[in-house]
Amino acid sequence: MAKCKSCGTDIIWIKTKNGKSMPCDVQKVKYWENPLSTGRVVTQGGRVVPCDFHGAELIVAGEGYIPHWSTCPDATRYRALQLIDCPYCGHEIKGDLILQEHQGKYSYLCPGCLYRRGDWSATIEDARKAWNETKP
Predict the structure, then answer these.
(1) How far is it, in rounded angstroms, from Cα 99 to Cα 94?
(2) What sign does the dihedral 54-49-98-23 (CA atoms) show?
């Protein structure tokens, strides 16, 4: 059985309908389909379903697996590994200075010129610390 490289939890890989492999928690869960829900489950057949995890037993949609990125304690660490160049000074922004928002948009703080984009609440001290960490 595979293990998450970050937290060490047992995971399984399920190939989704669009051909990508998704890491999922090993334990199957019951789910109730709900197109308005933020919960997700992956069926054995690879269908990713928006769902709720509680409901009336008589209307259970099925059983599936919870994507591991929604339960891994280190998931945000991997989402923050992207790199962005500051549009003003060109400094490379990475790691904890990038926050992923809804629909692939980002908020960030440039440690070079202190430019802020989006809903970012870091302090100047955070930027100075990050700047010192990026120096060779």
Answers:
(1) 10
(2) positive
